[in-house]
Fold each of these.
Amino acid sequence: MKRLLILGAGTGGTIIANKMRKVLKDDWNITIIDKSKLHYYQPGQIFIPFKLYGYNSEDGCVKPSGQYIPDGVNFVNDEITAVNPNEHRVTTKGGSYEYDWLVIALGCRIAPEEIPGMEEGYGKNVFYFYTMKSALDMQKALEQFDGGKLVLNIAEYPIKCPVAPIEYVCLADYYFTQRGIRDKVEISVVTGMQGVFTKPIAGDMMGSMLGERGIKVIPNFNLAEVDSSKGVIKSYDGQEVQFDFLAAIPPNLGAKVFDGHDMADGNCYILTDPKTLKSAKYDNVFVLGDSTNVTTSKAGSVAHFEAEIVYENLLAEIEGKEPHPDFDGHSNCFIETGYNKAHLIDFNYTQQPVPGKLPYPLVGPFSLLKETRMNHWGKMFFRWYYWNMLLKDRFSKSMELFLPTRMSYRGKDKHYLEK
Ligand SMILES: Cc1cc2nc3c(=O)[nH]c(=O)nc-3n(C[C@H](O)[C@H](O)[C@H](O)COP(=O)(O)OP(=O)(O)OC[C@H]3O[C@@H](n4cnc5c(N)ncnc54)[C@H](O)[C@@H]3O)c2cc1C
């Protein structure tokens, strides 16, 4: 019996389990391990603090993981404590598992403990939304917030869903407008980068949009400390920003089990070949999703596109062929901006987001780098698609048009592409 072991039953791990079970015969044992019995639809956590668009609670954003693991795959609910690629062995709290091929999809975690004062302030005037529980805590706190300085701070990069800060402040603008207290709330984004988004064309457009909404951007601020008693964040170079309500995005790090591991960088992200998605250090190991150190977004869309590449390359290796250096870093994301509208971006390692239409030139129906109602409805529909199609790898071939694994240039504005 040959053994495929998958670590993590989140977005990436669940898709790959479904894909591999369809093609590997009965002489393959497939096992997937996750410490959680629950699967979270994380994009919903951006709406929960504001109770927007029906996202009032975790209903519809969490399901039993087992519901998405296919028949014929063993689901082990346990915490992984060690990965030994020399012995082809993974250890959990309760057992030990050997493999012929390993797929790592352990995501990333928030680490507020890395910033002095952040945990101490939690629940008083410091809140997060990167976990379901913290998003629900923030919802209660926002209901009590009647005005003052609301500061969204990104402690450091990379973070998963790099557009989440933009979405958060736009939704805050919409939320306080709906509550009739927008004029009492000063909203700002404090970031260590030069702007709100790393890619220049999208960054400029998003920056202008925030300016028009009266949302201030404070760049080049590298967070050193949170002083919740004084309501102030401090940077390494001595800048200070006052807050009444801090929406903090703590440092994001890879899975703790890779702390100090030679497979990973100093932030626990696995050293990964950016094109084949093989471990850069060990054979018979593939990596996908937020666990990798590849230089595209940490996003569910990326985990999905990477799953297609890992599937192709894993099968190639099993058949004794070379893996294809085919992953182009494709990422796309709706950016919800409130008022029933959203932007959409589509890019890869070499092509930054540009305006245009997706998937069809001229007709779309989705618009790139433009706020539209259709984009908003795309984002709203996506949750249904995630639970019913994406995780179970249903109709993946017919969805290639809308969500191609490799980025398409069709519909993208040539004027911008030539820049
Ligand atoms: C607020 C927010 C909004 C987002 N919005 C979007 C969006 O609009 N679009 C988009 O594309 N993406 C979005 N994302 C990002 C997206 O959800 C993630 O990028 C995606 O889920 C990554 O998939 P993954 O498989 O790499 O990791 P995950 O889905 O996080 O799965 C990792 C799994 O590993 C398990 N695990 C970790 N360590 C261990 C261990 N030691 N032992 C056992 N199990 C372990 C975890 O329990 C988890 O189930 C958002 C994320 C957040 C937080």
Amino acid sequence: MATVKDFSVEEKLASLVKLQKIDSKLDEIRILQGELPIEVKDLEDEIHGLTSRKNRIEEEINGINEFIEQKRNAIKEAEALVKKYEKQSESVKNNREFEAINKEIEMQQLEGKLADKHIRDANEELADKARLLEQAKKQIASKESVLNHKKGELEKIIGETEKEENEYIQLAADARKGMDDRLIYSYDRIRKSYRNGLAVVPVMRDACGGCFNAIPPQRQSEIRQRKKVMVCENCGRILVDDDLNNATEVK
Ligand SMILES: [Zn+2]
């Protein structure tokens, strides 16, 4: 059996404060990184959606252009037919034939007018689509510039904090080694139950540094004596006096 050194309450409290400071530093680093990867991912998704939209508009524009080309050909065909019938009408043999040819000419002229109207409508639609396309392109460009900025920021933070994070992970592991299992268990349980990850807090301005509940002078004096582990009656966090908190350094 390894000999376990019997730590005083004061030493136990000091190591708890130290562990808390290390863990808080790790929380800080992770919060800093934590938001950016999500923001980058969201922006990438948005750009992906906008790009699909842009591609769809471009396909629609191609479709409209094809339609206009078809209608232009239809006009040419109608004009050619009108010319052909006009030539035929010069050599008609009777009234009936003349009327029949005239009807054909009228029909082709109507076809031509209709195609013309279709082209005009299509051109209007084309202008609308061009506006939408321009809009989508602008949105993509602005999202891309934000994305590049965020990506740069993220890479910088990861580059800067990676070494620091690993150092603190090591420090936390070291700090836990010599500590009382029961105390570690309580510490982890309290830490997990609060969003800010604070399980050990100093008494600040006669109140708990975690929940700001007032602490009576009698309890404050007990805390300062460092003879037993005291917890806040309101939030359950482990309380230490301000001097001990300030005297404990992480590195
Ligand atoms: Zn409290």
